[in-house]
Design brief:
Blueprint: E1 10-15, H1 19-22, H2 31-47, E2 52-57, E3 59-60, E4 72-73, H3 76-79, E5 92-96, H4 107-114, E6 118-124, H5 126-139, E7 143-152, H6 156-170, E8 172-174, H7 176-187
Parallel strand pairs: 1-2, 1-6, 2-5, 6-7, 7-8
Antiparallel strand pairs: 3-4
Helix pairs in contact: 2-7, 5-6
């Protein structure tokens, strides 16, 4: 579904723009492009005094997978948020240990306390952290907006699957410019 509106209390949720993730090879978009577009949205949300949530991943979930064991903590330098994000004291930091930002974190409680009814999602990786967070947000009854030109993946096919098949079922999709236009229109 195309982007139609932003609720009065909408939060920007930035997924895994941290040193270790951004250093990985991504497709179809380069990580730096995603960082730049996300920073544009961060600046706009902060300017409009809307909640900003910065999410990083500090460990893999327990359990074996066909891609190897991922349990355990990541090195500190891997988890550091990028300086380009210009983390502010008003930003809410969520450190996750699973794919999604809601499991075993305070994200749902924080959003509820802020009166947030909609989240705008950006980040890396589309089919992992972004999609998992979108699924849980939808299950929590939040309106979900997925900014498709401000996310990328480790696999182009997985990215395309999320964008074309999964996201339209979880919320509305749009571009950075569409979100900026709606912010200016509804917050003028």
């Amino acid at each position: 579904m195309a982007l139609t509106t932003l609720d009065a209390k909408t939060a920007l949720v930035v997924i895994d723009l941290q040193r270790g993730i951004v250093a990985l090879p991504t497709a179809p978009h380069p990580s730096q492009q995603i960082v730049e577009r996300s920073v544009t949205l961060l600046d706009a949300f902060r300017r409009h005094n809307l909640p900003v949530v910065l999410v990083n991943v500090a460990a893999g979930a327990p359990g074996r997978t066909d891609q190897g064991a991922h349990a355990g903590d990541f090195p500190a330098e891997f988890t550091e948020l990028l300086p380009e994000l210009k983390q502010q004291p008003s930003d809410h930091l969520v450190t996750k240990r699973t794919w999604g930002a809601f499991s075993n974190t305070d994200l749902a409680a924080y959003l509820q306390k802020q009166g947030v009814t909609q989240i705008v999602l950006v980040g890396i990786a589309t089919s992992i952290g972004v999609e998992s967070t979108a699924r849980f947000a939808s299950e929590h009854g939040l309106n979900v907006t997925l900014v498709v030109d401000a996310m990328t993946d480790l696999n182009a096919d997985a990215h395309a699957n999320s964008i074309t098949r999964i996201f339209p079922r979880l919320g509305e999709t749009g571009t950075v410019q569409e979100v900026l236009d709606l912010l200016e229109k509804t917050r003028a």
